Give the backbone structure.
Amino acid sequence: MIDIQNITDTKIDTDKLAQIVESISKRDIDILICNDEYITVLNKEHRGINRATDVLSFPLEADFDNMPLGSLVISIDKAREKADELGHNLDDEIALLAIHGTLHLLGMDHETDNGQMREAEREWIEYFNLPQSLIIRTQKE
């Protein structure tokens, strides 16, 4: 089950988001959509970085049958900025961030692997006909 909590005033397509995340993992995942202020507090508390970020992944360490995979926190403000900058819609940007974050929950890490996460992300993005991935965009910057 995908549990999505949107604590912003922005309406998002939660059905599309849940469908995408459920396709990547059958395990339960909690998703929180928040603003930059909220995600900054979490980023500082959990990573020691005092600024907003687009997505945070919090995997659960235990791996028991029927155990949830973890939680994602997505900044609506960062998603809106990037969607506006790149000319695609907000729901697509949130979907990209959810794919990226879910792959992290599954243990993938684009900073240390040999391209496996980038390839998995590319495959899901193509499957759901979404715009360029986070990893591809940041490699061009």
Notes: The mean pLDDT is 90. The chain has one domain: 2-140. Helices lie at 14-24, 36-47, 76-86, 90-105, 116-127, 134-140. The chain is about 50% helix and 15% strand.
